[in-house]
Amino acid sequence: MAGNNGFFSPERRAWIAVILYTLFLYSTLSLAFDVYMSIYRRIGRDSMSLSINSLFLIAGVLLMGWVFQASSRRMISLVAFLLIALTTALCLWQLEVPAKRIHFFQYAPLTLLTLRAVSFRCRERSRYAWTLALVTLIGVGDESIQGMLERRHFGWIDAMVNSLAGLLTLGFLTFVIGGDNFLESSRPRPPS
Predict the structure, then answer these.
(1) Which of 38, 50, 93, 169 has a CB 3.0–4.6 Å from the CB of 108, allowing a cystine?
(2) pTM across the whole model
(3) Contact assessment for residue 142 and residue 33, using Cβ atoms and an 8 Å cutoff
(4) pLDDT, tens digit (0-9, with 9 covering 90-100), for 81-126
(5) Smallest Cα–Cα separation from 101: which of 90, 86, 113?
(6) Which residues, including other chains, have CB under 8 Å from residue 104's CB and lie 6 or more apart?
């Protein structure tokens, strides 16, 4: 087993996870669009919109249940959760194209993985700024690749939605969960 500085160190594994997830996002651009369009043509815009919104509602209810059930939650955590949920709902409502709403599901996990990887080198508040910067850069890369694909285009709104998903995820981690709590729970424990 390699030590903390070896190829399989926790930091390297964290960065490998970010790279693999990013490659997954980039590699599915054409396929995901084709699958989305196939479903869209079958069920129509309204049903597609309702389906995606239902996924958000289910995720939101599950998160809300977890936040309210968790012991020792401060009132500020509950208020932060409600503000983040309302902001997300407002953003989803503003996005007329149902496919753009999926960006929130794609970029929240990327934000979690990136924050974990960045936290090995950056401390305190700078890790959140670096995380958001990297998520934004990956999102712009995503849109740049789409701009090169047939039947696709670069979308500044999509790039902003990617960044907003990262920002809201960081807000959730910081004000609802507690960023340090997330980072501590995601670090591997030393063998006993």
Answers:
(1) 169
(2) 0.75
(3) no
(4) 778 888 877 877 777 766 777 787 889 889 999 999 998 888 777 8
(5) 90
(6) 56, 88, 91, 92, 161, 165, 168
